[in-house]
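Provenance and format

Records in this collection were gathered into a single text stream. Each protein contributes a sequence line and a token line. The two records reproduced below are adjacent in the stream.
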Amino acid sequence: MGIGVPVITDYEIWENNPEKVFGVSKKWADENPNTHIAVVKALIRAAKWLDDDHNANRPEAVKILSQSNYVGADYDVIANSMTGTFEYEKGDKRPVPDFNVFFRYNATYPYYSDAVWYLTQMRRWGQIAEAKSDSWYMDIARKVYRPDIYEKAAKELIAEGKIQASEFPDFDTENGFRPPQTEFIDGVTYDGTKPNDYLKQFKIGLKEDDKV
């Protein structure tokens, strides 16, 4: 109806924040290891294609997504967030090339620190009722996020000549954690290896000794 106006994008709240995930059950992964790797390879290739040549393939992707058997929304609506600009209100269109990132900045890599951040928010707002140790956060992250599977898929793509090794993280040194992040709108630094220290920095929300 032309009434709603976006005030800010999530990219401006947390630059290069993690969003969508591909997840499967452990049972399915254990029973279908080759299919699992193949799907991850396909997702990595699709993500790279979307980001190639400064998002040059995005218009074609938008055409596909606008079909009724996929998203089915108008081309212009999908293109507003996919093709490198964002229209905050009618006529106020600004360049935001990284509003949607699929492969750049290791966007497809399943960082443990991303999982830990979501868990800290669940704790902060009461979805996790009891205080947890830092090691608990790490254990849960390692059960759900699987950089080992990602690495297998990536190395197959490298061996097949589909993607260059330089386009992936350095798997020999990667520990699954991003460096401390300072790109939040609140200015609070997040270190995924120290979730409880991160939570202590907030005036609002549950702390170590609080219970729901």
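Adjacent record:
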Amino acid sequence: MRMRSKPWTDRELEQNPHVVKDPETQKGRWAEFFGNDHPIYIEVGCGKGGFIAQNAAKYPDINFIGIERQHTVVGIAARKAGEGLPNLALVESDAKDLSELFEVGEFQRMYLNFSDPWPKKRYYKRRLTYREFLRQYQAVFGEKGEIFMKTDNRGLFEFSLNEFCAEGWQLSNISLDLHNSDFPDNIMTEYEEKFSAMGQPIYRLEARFSKPVRQE
């Protein structure tokens, strides 16, 4: 669902220090942007930014980049982030543009939280865990990488499990009911708070890949 525009959005995006203008120019220079060589974790579809901002506050030795394609939603995320998070950046962009934003190996982890499930079968190629997307992610990750995923949609979760396995990703920490599990230190998104309050189970997984080492 597209967010209704806010009259202050453009001003917020222009003035807020968390918002990266012309993010393509930072490709290969994100360490310079943050002023350190800490690991970089990204969230694709960061929404209103609650999850990525909480992570940035909790883990100051990791740089976090929230990527969101809806113009107004990026503005809301920027406004909510406040100040005092030098390890947080927000980018208005899309999952398909990752290779335009990052050099190979420039980030190490991706979060996919409550992505659009595209429930109609004819739209399965739009799901962010469809195998063609996974191959794109691998190309940008380079030698290795990991994806942490959460969703309330069982159909998307089962689809994702199959896609990750088909592409040779190693799965771990699979949960069919995250909030009734013993998983520690879970940081919730805005959608997660809403759905869990309705009694819906939250599904979670971690997927990792690494290229095989060549034998000389």
